Amino acid sequence: MMHLAETLNFSGRKVVAAWASIPFPARRGYSLPDTLRSYQHDAPWQLLSPCRKQKVSCCFAQSVVLRGVCKESPSSRPGEPPASPLHACESAEEVLQRYLHTLFPGAFSTAHVLEQPCDTLPPFPQFFSPLLTRQGFLLDKPPTYSPAAVESVPVLAALQSSPVLRTLLRGLHEDLQKLNPGRRASFFAAGVEQEEFREALEELRTLAQCYEAGFEADESEDEADSD
Asked: Might you name a Gene Ontology BP term for this protein (predicted)?
């Protein structure tokens, strides 16, 4: 994980944010291009890192893995043009790669697609919706019978070097600034000097600034929310 984070970071950045979709919202019988076309403006995942999600659809670099959704159903008849650029791709990995480039233009993106889904057999908790099939795919409506336990689910996960980390790092810096080390003698019992603490604070402030790109449009919204 540490080496992957280093690969995704440059220009002084050191931290990545984690995103995931468990399960990946793929409908039974739908192809991967059909599924991703319905998320053209917002990727189908949720932020796992303790950051306040911003309305910023950009990142600097990312590594994305999709498991359990590889094979596609026929998307067009012979002789008919593809329904979209995603449908023109030859493989599921190419579909995901093109989708990422469309959603995050200019970002360095790597995409990997694995056929094996994530197993959810006992003792995995069965907290899934009754709209999921045994293989973790979405149904259009609840079944009329008692649904069987979900045995596996498709999963989409990502690590991003993203501007959303600015909020986390800036908040951490502000919280640490409020500490008064002089009143906490045990704070430096491990041998940390006050000067080293100040240097670490400055490095944290500088690190937060490395993630400023893409936040200019949201700065006013942040200040309004804080008021």
From this structure: mitochondrion organization
Return the number of other C-beta atoms located less than 10 Å from residue 49's C-beta. 16
The CA-CA-CA angle for residues 112, 118, 119, to 5°, reads: 160
**What residues contact residue 1 under an 8 Å CB cut-off, 6+ apart?**
none
Helices 165-177 + 194-209 axis angle, to 10: 150
On whether the CB atoms of residues 52 and 161 are closer than 8 A, the answer is no
122 within 8 A of 99, measured Cβ to Cβ: no
Tokens 């670490």 found at:
200
Query: Domain residue spans in the chain?
Result: 1-161, 166-210
With cut-offs at 50, 70 and 90, classify the pLDDT of residue 223: very low
- Kindly report the pTM of this predicted structure: 0.82
β-strand 155-161 against 152-153: which pairing, if any?
Answer: unpaired
pLDDT digits (tens, 9 = 90+) for 105-118: 999 999 999 999 99
Chain-centroid distance of CA 171 in Å reads: 20
The pLDDT tens digits for 17-62 are 999 999 999 988 888 999 999 898 889 999 998 887 665 568 899 9
Distance separating the N- and C-terminal Cα atoms of the chain: 38
